[in-house]
Amino acid sequence: MADTPRTRMTAAERSTQVLTAAVQAFAESGYAATKTDEIARLAGVSQPYVIRLFGTKQQLFIAVLHEVCGRIEEVFRSAEIAPDADTAQALCALGRSFDVFLQQRELPLILLHGAAASADPAVGEHMRERYGRIYRLIGELTGADTTQARQFAGTGMLLTIMTAMQVAGADAITLPWATEILTDLHDGDADC
């Protein structure tokens, strides 16, 4: 029986593979503790290849931040907002869409690691710009004023933190304080 020839990955496919591995590694260990050789191992490539694709660990982390923030924007843009929806209804639709993001636990973790690594000038510049875009998108898609957009973003970050702590989302650990918050959020969204 002849061996099946292996299909070579394109550079774009390999780059996506490395980016996916980087999301996994950075989500688990954070920016400072993650080593590029760990990312390379997860991606099945050499460490020099990772550096050739992305330059530095910092540049790779920034690419991961852009990927994750782009995913949030994509989730929000795909929200099923009725054409005649008022702001409250539109925010409810965005909230339901955000649940999709929270179910992929690595993504909220990257968002938190990005905020934590923002003292690094290059990381901070990108993180602030992307978070600002997400904040502006909330208002753009829903007609929310500053207070409504701030409350929505604040609740989103609370849920992001709770998901990272595994007290919200899939496989959540049930704790009284977390249940109280989640119940209050659910009751507050009764119109959704």
Automatic annotation (TrEMBL):
The keyword DNA-binding applies. This is TetR/AcrR family transcriptional regulator. The lineage of its organism: Bacteria, Bacillati, Actinomycetota, Actinomycetes, Mycobacteriales. InterPro entries: Homeodomain-like_sf (IPR009057), HTH-type_TetR-like_transc_reg (IPR050109), HTH_TetR (IPR001647). PROSITE patterns: HTH_TETR_2. Residues 12-72 form the HTH tetR-type domain. SUPFAM superfamilies: Homeodomain-like. PANTHER family: HTH-TYPE TRANSCRIPTIONAL REGULATOR BETI, HTH-TYPE TRANSCRIPTIONAL REGULATOR RUTR. Residues 35-54 bind DNA. It comes from the Bacteria. Keywords: DNA-binding, Transcription, Transcription regulation.
